[in-house]
Each structure stands twice: as C-alpha cells, then as structure tokens.
Write a sequence for this structure.
C-alpha cells in the first residue's frame, strides 16, 4: 500500500499535482472555462499560468477525477498533472485521489499541492481515493501491470491538523483492501478453515480483541443446523467465527453478521456454468464485517462489537443437503428448503438466532451477498437495505453516502409474509412467489426475535464486485460495506 506523507513545504519533486474545479457560471448564463484552484500559496506565477493555459488548451471541465498530464522536459517539475475535484466535497476529492493513482501509476512519487484551509473531509477523501484505486490483487509470480507509485506527498499549510484524518483514511482503506484480498482469493485456497485462520492471525496480539472459531463438532453440539447443512456436502468442514471487540467503558453493543460461503456451487440445485466462475465472492459479507471489526479495534472506536461469520462451502456430494430437507436452526426454528442454492439465508439464520438468544445487542446488522435479485432491482453498484427502524435506516444510509458507497432502502412487504409458510416446517426458506430480495429479508427477519425493531439487513451481492476500474474501485472485489460500517460505528457511543 502506498505511503501518504503530509508536509508544509515540499523539498523538490518531479511530478506536481494541482487540483482544478469548475468555475462559477458568469452573468448571462455562460460558463467560464474551468480554472486552476484552489491555488497553493508560494507556487511560481509562471507555473500557475501554465496550468491555467493547459486547462483551456485541453478543454478541461474540472469534473471529479478528470486528469490531464503535461510533460515539461528540462524543467522542474518535469511533469504537471491536473486533476478535477468537482464540487470540492469529500466525494469529489475521493474521485480526484483515484484519478491521481491511475494517472501517476508509472511514477514512484508525486507531490500534491493543496491550498491552505482545505477541509479535513477533503484530505480524507483524497487519501481514500489514492489508497483504494491503487489496489491490485494478483497471484502471478511476475506481473507487468503493477503500479510503481510508492509515495504521495501532500503539501498543506498545517500538516499536523490533518494527521488524524489521514490515519483514519489509511486504516479504513487498509481494512477495505483486506476484505478485497479475502474475497478475491480463489476458493482452491479459501476453505472455511483457511478463512478463519486469516482472522485469527489478524486479531492476534490486539488488546481487547478476541476470536473464537467453532469447528463442526462444536457446531453440532450447540445446534447450528443451518451451517452444518450447507457445509455438509464439502470435504472442507464449516466454521463459525466469533470476533469480539470489547473496549473498556463501551456503552453500546452492536452485533455484525456476514454471510461466508467460501464457494457456492448451488449444491444439488447446481448453478449454470457461467454463474459458477465468480462464486469465490460469496463470502463478501463475512469479509466486510470481520474487516470492519478489525478496523474498529485499530481506530479504538468506543463501541462493543461482536461479529459472527458463518463459513461454509456449498458443494455437491452424497452428503449434500437435499431440496425438500427440513433444517433445524440454532434455537429450534425449522426451515423447509426446496432450493439448495438459497443457502446463504440458512447460515445467516443460525447466526442471527444465536445473536438474539445469547448476545442481546443494542443493534443487529447483517451483510450478505444474498440474491441476484439485488442487481435486477438496483443495478450493479447499489446495495438493498431493509429495516423496520426508520431512524436506524436513515443513519446507516447517511453513513453509506458519506463513505462513497451506495444503497437504497427497500420495502419489507407485509403481503409476502404468507409465502414463507410451510406444510412441513416453521418456515419455507425459498418460496418462488414475490420479490427475491424482499422475501430473503423477510425470512431473515423471522430469526431476529425481540431485536426485530433494531435489525438492519443489507443485500450487497451486486456492489460486492466490480467488473472494471471505476473511481476508487478496482476490478474485482470491492470490499463493499467496510467504509460504510466504520462511518456508522464512529457515530455511536
């Protein structure tokens, strides 16, 4: 991960980055050309004039993330990079950081000259954009497309005033990248046991952070029937990771739950060939909530967090659970399952029931790559948020927006509840009527008990994966949810 260094005055540089923004409209309705700005005090007048001329010559608009590189042979700096910041809000600066990371990927170091008094949110956005857009996951011994950019020097009037926000941005980006790494890792390596080991290693030695991993024998003894059913068809046994952050004096307790299917064949209800290729990403929810908890510990957030990650590989074998089976979940509720490809809700049901009966939190939040219907309804960059608590939903949506991620609140349609009825069991886990994402959410709600009014579910199947580079997203796993959850948790006390 590249280094970000704050300085008051740079001590020489080969590549200088200057921000640009759209100019205010002129009287009469005409827009003047994009102007350089805000301008860093002390820059040579001729350099500022050259940058302004480049804006006009290249017809730049100042749109967030827009870049233009100018070579200046035999002069200092040798390269001038202009980057748009849009409206100058945190989102615009985040896109600017991403633009710089890609435009300067062949440089080893760049200097970004910022004006005095730039708001802290701008620096946070800039740092997150730089660190997230420069991410690459490769397992090849030799790669030809890795970024050479190792350091970004940020020149600001008062470096000490921005140290905390940069540290927060670095931690947030580091944990988002960790979630991306976990999700991108091929399932030939990423068994439930391997996944659990990564969390044990990451939590080792961190004060007030503990981890417990339940193996198949313990899961059976305690009655986690959903996790055992889904993981029963694989030679790689399931696990339940319980990661706890308990800072002294914490008054609020949040339970985070994340779906952790390390590979999903669909089981006996096997997926078509093309749908199998990316099923290593079906543990994106577990990666997000676990990385969030590690991030909360690194930031010292004064909130107690218990994170539950049910991990299983949904495979086809003689031991796989069958369509039509009845599964007994933690606490005793039974589910009739007629589609073994609707497995995520079965493992989540166990974890939610355990959280309600054993942990008694103030809030219960779950993230899951749960349904393809998420993308059908909202496209590929937006998660579907469900909650009966208007205040909680509003606060989470605000945190998601500030973090630069996207979600939309969806209805928990009362008329669909009747479809969950079963002649054999307490619930039918995968009815074919109604809307897919909403039905899955309604099913999960049945396991929230007296926490129903403090529960929030996000189906983040669609935004968990990016098919190409876009702003701060790099192709592959996005680590969706880490940034949003850390923002929300930081508002609690």
């Amino acid at each position: 991960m590249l280094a970000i260094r704050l300085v008051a005055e740079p001590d020489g540089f080969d590549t200088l980055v200057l921000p640009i923004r759209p100019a205010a409209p002129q009287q009469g309705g005409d827009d003047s050309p994009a102007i350089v700005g805000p301008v860093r005090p002390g820059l040579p007048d001729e350099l500022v004039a050259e940058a302004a001329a480049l804006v006009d010559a290249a017809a730049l608009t100042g749109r967030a993330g827009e870049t233009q590189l100018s070579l200046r042979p035999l002069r200092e700096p040798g390269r001038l990079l202009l980057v748009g910041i849009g409206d100058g809000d945190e989102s615009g600066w985040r896109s600017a950081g991403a633009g710089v990371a890609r435009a300067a990927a062949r440089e080893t170091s760049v200097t970004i000259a910022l004006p005095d008094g730039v708001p802290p949110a701008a620096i946070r956005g800039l740092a997150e954009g730089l660190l997230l857009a420069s991410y690459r996951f490769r397992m090849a011994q030799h790669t030809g497309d890795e970024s050479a950019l190792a350091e970004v020097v940020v020149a600001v009037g008062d470096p000490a005033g921005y140290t905390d926000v940069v540290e927060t941005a670095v931690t947030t980006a580091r944990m988002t990248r960790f979630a991306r790494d976990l999700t991108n890792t091929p399932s030939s390596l990423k068994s439930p046991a391997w996944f659990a080991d990564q969390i044990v290693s990451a939590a080792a030695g961190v004060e007030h952070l503990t981890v417990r991993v339940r193996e198949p024998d313990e899961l059976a003894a305690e009655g986690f029937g959903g996790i055992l059913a889904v993981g029963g068809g694989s030679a790689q046994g399931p696990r339940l990771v319980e990661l706890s952050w308990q800072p002294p004096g914490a008054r609020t307790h949040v339970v985070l739950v994340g779906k952790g299917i390390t590979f999903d064949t669909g089981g006996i209800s096997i997926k078509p060939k093309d749908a199998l290729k990316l099923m290593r990403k079906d543990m994106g929810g577990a990666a997000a909530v676990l990385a969030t908890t590690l991030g909360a510990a690194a930031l010292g957030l004064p909130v107690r967090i218990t994170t539950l990650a049910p991990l299983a590989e949904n495979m086809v074998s003689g031991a796989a659970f069958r369509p039509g089976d009845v599964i007994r979940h933690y606490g005793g509720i039974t589910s009739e399952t007629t589609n073994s490809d609707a497995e995520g809700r079965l493992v989540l049901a166990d974890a939610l029931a355990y959280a309600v009966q054993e942990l008694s939190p103030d809030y219960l939040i779950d993230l899951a790559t749960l349904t393809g219907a998420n993308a059908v309804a909202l496209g590929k960059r937006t998660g579907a948020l469900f909650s009966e608590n208007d205040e909680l939903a509003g606060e989470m949506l605000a945190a998601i927006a500030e973090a630069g991620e996207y979600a939309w609140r969806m209805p928990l349609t009362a008329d669909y509840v009747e479809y969950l009825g079963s002649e054999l069991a307490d619930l039918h886990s995968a009815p074919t009527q109604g809307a897919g994402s909403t039905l899955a959410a309604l099913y999960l709600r049945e396991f929230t008990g007296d926490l129903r009014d403090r529960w929030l579910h996000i189906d983040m199947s669609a935004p968990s994966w990016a098919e190409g580079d876009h702003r701060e997203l790099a192709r592959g796993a996005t680590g969706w949810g880490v940034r949003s959850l850390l923002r929300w948790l930081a508002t609690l006390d």
Observations:
- The mean pLDDT is 94.
- The CA atoms of residues 128 and 293 lie 18 Å apart.
